[in-house]
Amino acid sequence: MSHYCDLAPGHPFHGPYHDTEYGFPVDDDRALFERLVLEINQAGLSWLTVLKKRAAFRLAFEDFHIDRIANYAEEDRQRLLSDAGIIRNRLKVDAVIHNAGVVQSLRSEHGSFKAWLDHHHPLPHADWVKLFRKTFRFTGPEIVGEFLMSTGYLNGAHRDDCPVQARILTAGPAWQST
């Protein structure tokens, strides 16, 4: 079975993501929200499709400005559903808007999305899935697992012999402290 560490290096889209983002700790709430949005939109599609559309997602969702997205009205929803640059799935678009409001609440209660994640860390994958399903829309085991691996909360983004893994360990991912 191929691993992302085998497929990504040198690829124009996978390579940069693999080498500089995937598995590294993320402190910024916008970046965390972007990862959640991208993982939700990947459901049923290839990760390459999502990476190719990433710039369009950033534009369509105003650089993942959580407060703006949480306040999107029907005209924004229609704009997004007619934007050929992104994935035009009503359930996914509605989930992004709803989840932005959830992140606002988490920030009010915990100070930040990251603080909420830190508050619940460490949890086994199955418990993370239960928590995310209770908290967010359109989150299942694969979405939650990839989101948490991509942001350094769960181990497994890279093989131990991948050169990127050493840089991730130096960055101190949350899973390392468990």
From TrEMBL:
UniProt KW Zinc keyword: yes
Binding site for Zn(2+): 5, 18
Keyword entries, A-Z: Glycosidase, Hydrolase, Metal-binding, Zinc
Domain of life: Bacteria
GO biological process: base-excision repair
Record-listed E.C. numbers: 3.2.2.20
Primary enzyme class: hydrolase
GO molecular function: DNA-3-methyladenine glycosylase activity; metal ion binding
Entry-linked Pfam families: Adenine_glyco (PF03352)
Membrane-crossing residue ranges in chain numbering: none
UniProt KW Metal-binding keyword: yes
PANTHER family membership: DNA-3-METHYLADENINE GLYCOSYLASE 1 (PTHR30037), DNA-3-METHYLADENINE GLYCOSYLASE I (PTHR30037:SF4)
Name assigned to this protein: DNA-3-methyladenine glycosylase 1
Species name: Halomonas chromatireducens
Gene label: tag
